[in-house]
Amino acid sequence: MSTVQGANVVVTGAGGGIGAALARRFTAEGARVAVNDIDPGRTKAVADEIGALAVPGDASAIIEEAREALGGTVDIYCANAGLASPGDAFADEDVWASAWDVNVMAHVRAVRTLLPDWLERGSGRFVSTVSAAGLLTMIGAAPYSVTKHGAVAFAEWLSLTYRHRGLKVHAVCPQGVRTDMLTAAGSAGELVLAPSAIEPEDVADALFEGIEADRFLILPHPEVAGYYQGRAGDPDRWLATMNHIQRKWEDTAR
Ligand SMILES: NC(=O)c1ccc[n+]([C@@H]2O[C@H](COP(=O)([O-])OP(=O)(O)OC[C@H]3O[C@@H](n4cnc5c(N)ncnc54)[C@H](O)[C@@H]3O)[C@@H](O)[C@H]2O)c1
User: Fold this and answer.
1) How far apart are CA 114 and CA 76, in angstroms?
2) Which domains does the chain show, CATH number per domain?
């Protein structure tokens, strides 16, 4: 029997892309799923397709409603909604604020709502769709890179603080995945992400392998482990390599 059979699951940002693939996979594995997206039409379309509950709205605002729709308990919460938030230090304050709100604070708010019950029951699972940008960085996307680092930090903090009390945490950190977000990433996405891009279903496969193996860090692109080690082991060399990619991107944009 699947680990998630009969579990109550919330997936945010599940109106398409990775979230929809996660919602489909959880449903196929016998879980009861609440599909959330800020776009009501996309929420309903995915929920209807897989026979799940539809809870449209901002990910931060629907946590209680999703729990009620699932009968009062959430066993697994997938904080998947995210904003691509391109730009540099001069990006609008609004871009920085919305990146922080969706990519980090939505996770914090979900935990505030769900953690007391998880600790009382001695079990709960928090899945954070972060990005390899949260371990490395994304060319041309300062707000995205900074907030995804924040999301990794929050997931790590959560895991190390509550693992002895039954909480399981997974940080899913893919590079390119063929979704609307990759298309919107423009020339930087084309250069850095597209060549090794995978399908949303591959991310769902990696998450389920990670759940079975009880692993915190889930790398749908296994090569990211080497890049992450390279960054930690020799930061200057890693920065020089990344700067080389930056200059290549600047050349393509000319
Ligand atoms: N596509 C990639 O290359 C890639 C790589 C690494 C990580 N990710 C991450 O995967 C997650 C899913 O992205 P995706 O690639 O499937 O993109 P996507 O654009 O297909 O899906 C993101 C969904 O989130 C929804 N959304 C945005 N703000 C929301 C909010 N406040 N509340 C609820 N829903 C909201 C959007 O409407 C959209 O349907 C994101 O966190 C993203 O950062 C994507």
Assistant:
1) 10
2) 8-253 (3.40.50.720)
CA distance 122 to 99: 32
Determine the distance separating the centroid of ligand 1 and the alpha carbon of 80, expressed in angstroms: 6
By most ligand atoms within 8 Å of CB, the mutation choice from 177, 196, 218, 219 for ligand 1 is 177
Q: Are 12 and 20 in contact (CB under 8 A)?
A: no
The dihedral through the CA atoms of 210, 227, 147, 189 has a sign that is negative
In this prediction the pTM is 0.98
Q: Is the CB of 11 under 6 A from ligand 1?
A: no
Tell me, in angstroms, the distance from the centre of ligand 1 to residue 17's CA.
7
- Residue whose token pair is 């930090």: 153
pLDDT tens sequence across 105-144: 999 999 999 999 999 999 999 999 999 999 999 999 999 9
